[in-house]
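Researcher: Next entry in the queue.
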Amino acid sequence: MSVMDYSVAHMLAGALMLASLMMLYQKRLYALINIYALQAFLLSLAVAWQAVLQHAPQLYITALIALLFKALLIPFALHHIVIRLRIHREIETVAGTGTGTIMLVGMALVALSMDVMLKAAANTALLEREDLAFALAVLLLGLLMMVTRRNAVSQIIGFLSLENGLILAAAGTKGMPFMVEISIAFSILVAFIVIGLFLFRIRERFDTVDLRALDDFRGERRLTEVSSGRSSCGNEGKTL
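Model: Structure for this entry, 240 residues:
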């Protein structure tokens, strides 16, 4: 492998991780969806370049699936959902986790991924080891977005970004079965359809996709059940 080949692969994987950090910083829902589309486009380029380096034509199919579904179809569907449900465009974070704090945690996760994976995969080739480190960083940053955002759509994007890290790891590891790559790519499509239906049901029931509404409803329901239990106990006491 030439220095140029290694540099291009390194640049694409690093850009994928940088897009994950950019998503953590976004406060507008439309911008978040657009950056996810950019990340998916970079993923398709990274997988296609791995196909060239590994002389693996099957990876071109994975790259094409990532381009069509993850970079084009899913972002378009997310924009449609945002418009259809009239979701508030400002993204709220969990209490006590400002943007600055989230970015610091994200950078710490990136450093942790590099340190852990570069040591754990010390016996593998340099490019594979670094791709696995970048993939782990993308996975952890997607998980961080899921646990620090209140809006259900932003949590979905975090889940999709997490899955991008899995595809990057699968493509960068030589010998990964092709059916595993295809199953990963299509599983996210099925999950997206289910999540889309789930969002519409939440909107119809609570008139919002903010997860605080679910917490409030659960608390109110618990209070109602407790009050009903007390009333029934009181009525039984009077009867006795």
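Model: The longest helix spans residues 178-206.
Researcher: Noted, moving on.
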